[in-house]
């Protein structure tokens, strides 16, 4: 093989490796965004698929085991349905009533969503105020408007 072909082959392999690395590290790479309603009604359709969903946090449902690093909670869509979530890992700091929670992972046979990633959307980001003045109804309205698109 000539020197030029070796250089071109090396550059091509480096380019392919770089592209693979870029796509695999992108947020939500390879995940499907599915609504809670669709997951609760057709969960078996998505078994084995890496999916992302979001909903409002039901604060009363939070069960945190700090020793095992296990978090169980449920998220819901206003007037639609709820989804049970299990996450093995750290609980986000700002788990508060009606905060929007984004989860990525897999739906199990029994309908529980096993989340590999758990994120929250900070309500103060939308309102520009501290949590003492947090308006739950406004946050629900923002969530509902985001999901109507």
Would you kindly provide a written description of the structure presented here, covering whatever features stand out?
This protein has 149 residues and is an alpha/beta fold. It has 2 domains: 1-29; 31-147, Nucleic acid-binding proteins (OB fold (Dihydrolipoamide Acetyltransferase, E2P), Beta Barrel), CATH 2.40.50.140. It has 4 helices and 6 strands; from the N terminus they run H-E-H-E-E-E-E-E-H-H. The chain has helices spanning 3-24, 36-42, 123-127, 136-147, and strands at 32-33, 51-65, 70-77, 81-88, 100-107, 113-121. A 5-stranded mixed beta barrel has the order 2-3-4-6-5.
Short note summarizing the structure:
The protein has helices spanning 3-24, 36-42, 123-127, 136-147; strands spanning 32-33, 51-65, 70-77, 81-88, 100-107, 113-121. By secondary structure, the protein is an alpha/beta fold. The chain folds into two domains: 1-29; 31-147, Beta Barrel (OB fold (Dihydrolipoamide Acetyltransferase, E2P)), CATH 2.40.50.
CATH hierarchy, class of the largest domain: Mainly Beta
Task: List low-confidence stretches.
Answer: none
Mean pLDDT: 79
Helix content: 25-40%
CATH topology term of the largest domain: OB fold (Dihydrolipoamide Acetyltransferase, E2P)
Distance between the termini: 55 Å
């Amino acid at each position: 093989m000539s020197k030029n072909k070796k250089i071109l082959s090396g550059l091509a392999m480096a380019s392919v490796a770089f592209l693979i690395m870029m796509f695999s590290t992108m947020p939500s790479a390879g995940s499907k965004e599915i609504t809670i309603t669709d997951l609760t009604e057709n969960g078996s359709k998505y078994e084995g698929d890496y999916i992302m969903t979001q909903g409002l946090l039901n604060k009363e449902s939070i069960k945190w085991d700090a020793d095992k690093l296990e978090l169980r909670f449920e998220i819901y869509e206003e007037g639609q349905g709820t989804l049970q979530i299990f996450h093995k890992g750290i609980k986000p700091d700002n788990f508060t009533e009606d905060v929007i929670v984004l989860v990525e992972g897999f739906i199990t046979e029994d309908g529980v969503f096993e989340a590999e990633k758990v994120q929250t959307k900070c309500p103060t980001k939308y309102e520009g105020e501290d949590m003492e003045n947090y308006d739950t109804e406004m946050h629900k309205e923002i969530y509902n408007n985001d999901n109507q698109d």
